[in-house]
Amino acid sequence: MIGFSKTAVPGFGMLSVPVLAMAFGGRASLGTMLPMLIVADLFAIAWYRRHARWDILFGLASWVFVGAGTGAATLLIMSRHAKGPDWPGFAIGWLVLVMLAFHIYRRRGDGGATALKRMGNPVAGVSAGFATTVSNAAGPITTLYLSSAGLDKNEFMGTSAWFYFCFNLLKVPIYLFVAHFGSAPPLITATSLGINLAVAPGIVAGAILGRLVLPVISQKAFEDGVIGLAGLASLKLLWDFAVAWGR
How many other C-beta atoms can be found within 10 angstroms of the C-beta atom of residue 11? Predict the structure, then answer.
């Protein structure tokens, strides 16, 4: 799923977040998933790097740093309170649904309010930086934001490839920092790296499959696919929170 999402349908990768969380637990899944994402990012960079829209990336970058810093602080707090419902996931789920509604509003031809358009970079950047740091779940936010920017599918893939590669690398020192100053076990361990090596062939196979599939996907099917998966992923986050809250 991770390899395929990086080279074909980005929203598909979000489905791997709950799978890994169920297998290893929410916190441990962060460190297990990060190297997998970086390996898959390398394939996306190799194939789509020339299609990136750097103006969009630079517009988001400073706000992503703010969100990542907030996420690092949240992880430190969460390391001392590991039990209970996933409040970051709850916030991310609602935020994605709001962005989804706004995106549908724009696609209907209503244009979008000027004020909301100006808020686009700060809201998307901070929320994506926060989401990717605390849960590897920035996919719904970035896919909706890039879709609303009117990119074709190759520009979408190139822009998202560089975005994820750069900020997934940023998370490595963040996770090491949290492990050093937090009270919970490290996020990246020898065991998690061993798991990463074991699944590497699957990542490569998924990336190659995505490269073959993308050219035959229509632009409309591509956009509908990433938007639909983003919406489903956000509902999954809210469902997980409701289940944890009811226990």
Answer: 23
| Residue whose token pair is 């849960």 | 135
Quick one: pLDDT band at residue 68, thresholds 50, 70, 90?
very high
CA 19 to each of CA 16, 30, 108, 119, 171: distance values in angstroms, whole numbers, following the listed order = 5, 12, 34, 33, 21
Name the nearest CA neighbour of 133 among 227, 226, 31: 31
Q: How far is CA 194 from the centre of its chain?
A: 23
Exposed e or buried b per residue across 131-157, where buried means at least 16 C-beta atoms within 10 angstroms of its C-beta: bbbbbbbbbbbbbbbbbbbebebbbbb
Distance in angstroms (rounded) separating the CA atoms of residues 128 and 96: 10
Two tokens at 35? 């190297």
Sign of CA dihedral 106, 108, 111, 115: negative
Q: How far is the C-alpha of 206 from the C-alpha of 104, rounded, in Å?
A: 30
Least-confidence region, from 58-72, 75-89, 101-115, 179-193? 101-115
Global confidence as pTM: 0.80
User: DSSP letter at 186?
Assistant: P
Question: Residue 119 has what pLDDT?
Answer: 57
